[in-house]
Write a structure and sequence with these properties.
The chain is an alpha+beta fold. The chain has helices at residues 3-25, 64-71, 210-214; strands at 48-61, 75-87, 91-110, 113-135, 144-160, 170-186, 191-201, 222-231. The N and C termini lie far apart (82 Å). It has a domain at 44-61 and 75-105 and 120-161 and 170-205 and 220-231: Porin. The chain has three helices and eight strands. The radius of gyration is 36 Å and the shape is elongated. The longest helix is centred in the first third of the chain and has 23 residues, at 3-25.
């Protein structure tokens, strides 16, 4: 046997002989087993989200003849804002405050004809509404979320004219109800655009005097298109 072959055989036998000694020389692992509980982040479905918003609204009043006679058209603009509370992505409650104020003219309806009297009249409507409902939000970051809702509101109405006696002016408040629905568009992680249509019924304020009584109209509500810019997740 050659010297090189003998040397390789000797190295192999030496390695086999030292392996048990090296294994026995390693210190035992006395560390206790890792029993830490790994917690996952809470699902978005469990989140409670608070989302402020600003709103613009165009309302077609049910008292069509009254508003057309005084202001020249039966649809008017409201502006306001509020706060949405989203629960589990599927439910919402929102509080909305808005305001309409405009100066027109006193009018008279006679034989189904409208006569504007040239006397200034200022009307102001201030709704405060609470609406709750359901959202069709089935997955996180859904781009389009339909929703429906209903609620109650209180509506303050003021009507005044410089040519009127103080007892001829109107300052009243009455409650009403709301139903509606729309779609939420996700523009950004923190920005939403809500577009919806709502119907309100507010009896008990109009129809007691003036042009609304002549037109036999007593509902301050109507059908409105609302556009909201919402901030929040």
């Amino acid at each position: 046997m050659r010297v090189g072959s003998r040397l390789r055989l000797f190295v192999a036998i030496l390695g086999l002989a030292m392996t048990p000694t090296m294994i026995a020389a390693q210190p035992p692992d006395d560390r206790p087993p890792d029993r830490r509980v790994v917690t996952r982040p809470a699902d978005d479905t469990d989140a409670l989200s608070l989302r402020p918003f600003v709103m613009g609204m165009e309302q077609m009043f049910s008292a069509t003849h009254t508003f057309d006679a005084v202001f020249g058209r039966s649809h008017q603009s409201f502006f306001g804002g509020g706060l949405q509370v989203i629960v589990n992505r599927r439910y919402f409650v929102e509080v909305v405050a808005s305001r309409f104020r405009k100066t027109g003219e006193r009018a008279l309806i006679f034989n189904n004809q409208t006569f504007r009297l040239g006397l200034p009249l200022t009307a102001e409507v201030k709704p405060l509404e609470v609406i709750g409902g359901l959202r069709v939000d089935r997955r996180p970051n859904q781009r389009f979320v339909p929703y429906i809702g209903a609620g109650l509101g209180t509506y303050a109405y003021k009507e005044s004219s410089p040519s009127s006696d103080p007892d001829e002016n109107v300052d009243a408040r009455h409650s009403g109800f709301i139903v509606g629905g729309g779609v939420e568009f996700r523009l950004h992680r923190w920005i939403r655009l809500d577009v919806d249509e709502q119907y309100t019924h507010v009896p008990g304020i109009l129809g007691r005097a003036g042009v609304s009584r002549s037109a036999a109209e007593d509902d301050l509500g109507g059908v409105a298109l609302r556009v909201k810019i919402v901030v929040g997740r």
